[in-house]
Amino acid sequence: MGIPLPGEFGERARAILAGRLAPVAARDAATVIVLRDDPLEVYLLRRKATMAFAAGAYVFPGGSVDPRDDSHAVAWAGPSPAEWGELLRAEEKTARGLVCAAVRETFEESGVLLAGPTEDTIAADTTGWDAEREALIDRSLSFVDFLNGKGLVLRSDLLKPWGHWITPEVEYRRFDTRFFVAALPYGQRTRDVGGEADSVAWMRPQEALDLAKSGEIAMLPPTLHTLREMAGFEAIAAVFANDRKIVTVMPRVVEVDGEMRLDVSG
């Protein structure tokens, strides 16, 4: 049962399970499954082999919440931060930061921007904003300042909450991650723009799962689980129409016949 934890990770897991070692606190983070139709495909990026977390793995766009993401100065359309708090089972301040991080990270890592000049429009083309995107990545520019400087409104209505995964306690880097889904806006296109990726691709969910099963690409359990769910849909409309119940999953450390393992079943 579960994934074996050999060597150092096994000893770390044993110490945490015994209460001799406190796990690292998990940081709030957001991940967005960007979809496009005909056929239904997901946008994936491969993290550089030099990354400290999930090196070489194919993932959805996402990352940690920036402390400035919860600013009240963000022009906002769609469900309010308070409403998102109910959906995400989080405090309003945390929910505001998570939604803002979801939109920001998607723009940083794919060039897709879920914002527009008004509350019912969306930016048609973001290809001329690479300098601002680079400033967002190196954190010399806050997302609220970027949006306000362009006269843009964050469109929280273009996101749908999908999942909640917390990194196992045995990991040295841990994230408390909310998963969202979003459709590729009309007129926008993804491009290889993120600083943390060395490759990007659009794939049908089952295609990505098959490549992972054959060992051709690497993925973490949350990505695999989400792709299995996406494989059950034929179109974006069906994904958004799904009556989704968010369940929090944190793979846990267990001991089986003297061997430390990671139970990813939740």
Tell me what you see in this structure.
- Its cofactor is Mn(2+); Mg(2+).
- One of its GO terms (molecular function) is metal ion binding.
- It comes from Acrocarpospora corrugata.
- The chain is α+β, with helices and mostly antiparallel strands and 266 residues long.
- It has a single domain, classed as Nucleoside Triphosphate Pyrophosphohydrolase.
- Helices cover 30% and strands 25% of the residues.
- The protein contains eight helices and 14 strands.
- Strands 2, 3, 4, 5, 9, 10, 11 and 12 form an eight-stranded mixed sheet that branches. It has a three-stranded antiparallel sheet with strand order 1-14-13, covered by helices on one side.
- Helix 2 crosses helix 3 and helix 6 crosses helix 7.
- The chain is globular and about 60 Å long.
Topology:
Blueprint: E1 3-4, H1 7-18, E2 27-36, E3 41-47, E4 58-59, E5 62-64, E6 76-77, H2 81-88, H3 92-110, E7 115-116, H4 130-137, H5 143-150, E8 153-155, E9 160-166, E10 175-183, E11 197-203, H6 205-213, H7 221-230, H8 236-241, E12 248-249, E13 252-256, E14 259-263
Parallel strand pairs: 2-10, 6-8, 9-12
Antiparallel strand pairs: 1-14, 2-3, 2-5, 3-4, 3-11, 7-8, 9-10, 13-14
Helix pairs in contact: 2-3, 6-7
- Low-confidence blocks of residues: none
Radius of gyration: 19 Å
Average pLDDT number: 91
Going by CATH, what is the homologous superfamily? Nucleoside Triphosphate Pyrophosphohydrolase
- Indicate the proportion of strand residues: 15-25%
N-to-C terminal Cα separation, in Å?
Answer: 12 Å
Q: What is the overall shape?
A: globular
Q: Briefly, what CATH class?
A: Alpha Beta
The total of helices stands at 8
Task: Work out the number of β strands.
Answer: 14
Instruction: Using the coordinates shown, work out and report the CATH topology.
Output: Nucleoside Triphosphate Pyrophosphohydrolase
Which structural category do the helix and sheet elements fall into? alpha+beta
Domain module tally: 1
The CATH architecture comes to: Alpha-Beta Complex
Helicity level = 25-40%
* Biggest sheet overview: 8 strands, mixed
**What's the order of the H and E elements?**
EHEEEEEHHEHHEEEEHHHEEE
